[in-house]
Design brief:
Number of strands: 22
Number of helices: 1
Radius of gyration: 60 Å
Order of helices and strands: EEEEEEEEEEEEEEHEEEEEEEE
Helix content: 10-25%
Shape: elongated
Strand content: 25-35%
């Protein structure tokens, strides 16, 4: 319905002023016989819920102070029914007359022109109203659906969804099959490991497997490629062969197997060596060439000497130690020994001279 068809005789319309999204309303009604048009700033549609709009109220060309004031809307819908509400206003800046309004839903129930005015009341009972304003409330569109197209499109979508569901089902089944296969493999591995552990435990309990720090018995023909330590001794019941050497039955030969007693190269004897301290089984290179060098060298009977080149052989077993020195040319042999507690002194050197050695 056009506004002109409902204007009273002699009335006209006028546009409101808006600045920065705020609509200005003069409550002293400077417009005479005029309806103010809100449609420039918004229109409604049936069953709308209008968003907030901001109004600034003026009086005598100055912002009106809205402190302690309430604002009420009086509206007439296109169907002739009225709406009165005061809870749709929120005065946000009372000193400068600014308020927010959300028109009631009842305002938008009928299609056509909505007429309204606002009443401002203070706590002293004074009330003042604005000019009549209006906006258009549009009707809902009547949409007709082509049932044939709708059905075919619906069927297409239904088939697309079913195809996707079937694809997802196939993928899920494949993954479940993979999970089941992996689970079965893990179960078989677990069972195998459990059986092996049971067999190993039974072997240990039956004394058929060697254990560290345990009491182990070897009754068969056993071969060990590396012997690390025998600090607690070795009990042999059926004989022991080490590098081809046969030891007697039931003999404790751990001392012979001690790495410190293995006959091998043990280092050099030089100018500063005290020969009394060379007491480890093995052979040593001798390089004594300084005058008064070395201590207890062969031939000096506990004195110093020089120009001794050759090889020293040491045999130590328990508290008994032998030293045998052969000079570089092989023409002289020196031998001495000691036995007993560590405080026992060495015997003097004995020597032998070899003349006219046989030719090679």
């Amino acid at each position: 319905m056009a506004i002109e068809s409902i204007l009273p005789d002699g009335y006209k319309t006028a546009e409101l002023i808006e600045a920065d999204g705020i609509i200005r309303i003069d409550i002293d009604k400077p417009y005479r016989q005029t309806y103010l048009n809100l449609s420039t700033y918004f229109n409604g549609r049936q069953n709308d819920s209008m968003s907030l709009k901001k109004f600034q109220f003026y009086e005598n060309d100055a912002p009106k102070n809205l402190t302690n004031c309430t604002i009420t809307i009086h509206a007439q819908k296109p169907d002739g029914k009225t709406v009165v509400a005061s809870d749709c206003f929120n005065i946000i800046r009372p000193q400068v007359g600014i308020a927010e309004v959300s028109f009631p839903r009842q305002t938008f129930t009928a299609m056509g022109t909505v007429l309204l005015y606002l009443v401002i009341s203070n706590n002293q009972g004074t009330a003042v109203s604005t000019n009549t304003m209006y906006f258009e409330n549009e009707g809902n569109l009547s949409l007709t659906i082509n049932s044939d197209n709708y059905d075919s499109e619906l069927e297409t979508k239904r088939k697309e969804i079913l195809d996707k569901l079937n694809s997802i089902e196939t993928e899920v089944n494949d993954r479940l099959a993979s999970i089941n296969a992996l689970s079965k493999g893990l179960e078989n591995s677990y069972n195998t490991m459990t059986q092996a552990l049971d067999i190993n435990t039974k072997t240990i309990n039956d004394g058929m497997s060697a254990t560290r720090n345990g009491s182990n018995s070897f009754t068969g023909s056993n071969s060990f490629s590396k012997l690390v330590s025998m600090l607690n001794g070795l009990n042999v019941s059926n004989g022991l062969t080490v590098d081809g050497v046969q030891f007697s039955d039931k003999a404790d030969k751990s001392e012979l197997l001690n790495p410190a007693n293995v006959f091998q190269y043990k280092g050099d004897i030089n100018d500063d060596t005290n020969w009394n301290s060379v007491d480890k089984t093995g052979y040593y290179s001798v390089w004594v060439h300084k005058a008064q060098a070395g201590l207890h060298v062969p031939g000096t009977n506990n004195g110093n000497g020089n120009d001794y080149w050759g090889t020293l052989l040491v045999f130590a077993y328990g508290d008994t130690i032998y030293q045998m020195f052969i000079n570089f040319g092989g023409s002289r042999l020196f031998v001495r020994s000691k036995t007993g507690s560590p405080k026992t002194v060495w015997n003097g050197w004995s020597s032998a001279q070899f003349n006219n050695p046989e030719s090679n």
